[in-house]
Amino acid sequence: MSAPRNCAALPIAWRLGRFSIAARPRAAAACALLLLLAFLLGLAALAMGRGGLTLARIAEIWIGGQAATAGERLLLDIRLPRVLTGLFVGAALGVSGAVFQSLSRNPLGSPDLIGFTTGAATGALLQIVLYGPSITGAALGATAGGLLTAAVVWLLARRHGRLGSQRLVLIGIGAGAMLHAVNGLLLAKGNLDNAILANLWLAGSLNARAWTHAWLAIGAAVVFIPPVLLCARRLAILEMGDDLASQLGVPVEGLRLGMVLCAVMLASLATGAAGPIAFIALAAPQLARRLLDAGGPPVLASAAMGACLVAAADLLGQSQPLELNLPIGKLTGLLGGLYLIWLLTRRRSA
Fold first, then answer.
1. Fewer Cβ within 10 Å of end Cβ, the chain: N or C?
2. What are 70-82's pLDDT values in tens digits?
3. Where are the domains of the chain?
4. What's the 3-state SS for the chain?
5. Per CATH, which fold does 79-344 belong to?
6. In this model, does residue 242 exceed pLDDT 80?
């Protein structure tokens, strides 16, 4: 009997009582490298600027227990929330994209393209334009807008009691287009001062992020990513079809509804914390899948990849190439558009 051709791809399992964990060495190594890269990018973002706060000095303050000067403390209080917001917003968007792409069985099924992020932006814009800027109000508005958009798209995409993956993508794209027009109308007809602030928020930026934004993004990741991790294996089974998943004991509709709720909350709260940041939810899961070369939704790898992409985009935006200081949402939109063209070209030739 011949041995498997690729023994490194076989999973390694650990069992503790009723619980067991299985991991492939390549996937575990890739996730560890991505997490390390995200950490290093965060440290590099903390060290940027003219404050003289080097990586060695950050280590002395955090690990060595040395007291920071007033200037250093100010930099840490400003930069650290920005960095943490970017990392956890990227993680939340990456996992949200992984869930939607798994449920729709389509690499284009990300919350950016199927309208959920646009719906979250509409809810936040309503709050900002009508009542003025508020961190809590924008977060609540984004959550309500994302959930309402998801509910409408979900109901319209169902036929004969089942959710059609292609219908979900197409109806979501149509809903996103209408909501984009609504956002433009809100900016045109709202109070001028509030409309200007709303337009700045709509660009998607990590500038002036406070600890409130950071805790919002951290809370979203801590609350809603673990349930997705626990259901990752069932999501992988669901990708093989509803009938087969039902025969294997997977509660198809309950699982799909729960995962949609987690993914919408992740995308909405991330949007509330940093504004709409385009294409992270689209690109992170696809890049993670290619890196891991494994079936099923790469939840942890998508989170780490999303954090890396946002942190790298923020570093690139702060470096001011060609004397331009672009908001991170515009920068990811430019780069993500190129990625989308490449993805569509590959799908056409496949």
1. N
2. 556 666 778 888 8
3. 79-344
4. CCCCCCHHHCCEEEEECCEEEEECHHHHHHHHHHHHHHHHHHHHHHHCCCCCCCHHHHHHHHCCCCCCCHHHHHHHHHHHHHHHHHHHHHHHHHHHHHHHHHHHCCCCCCCCCCCHHHHHHHHHHHHHHHHCCCHHHHHHHHHHHHHHHHHHHHHHHEECCEECHHHHHHHHHHHHHHHHHHHHHHHHHCCHHHHHHHHHHHCCCCCCCCHHHHHHHHHHHHHHHHHHHHCHHHHHHHCCCHHHHHHCCCCHHHHHHHHHHHHHHHHHHHHHHHCCCCCHHHHHHHHHHHHHCCCCCCHHHHHHHHHHHHHHHHHHHHCCHHHCCCCHHHHHHHHHHHHHHHHHHHHHHC
5. ABC transporter involved in vitamin B12 uptake, BtuC (1.10.3470)
6. no
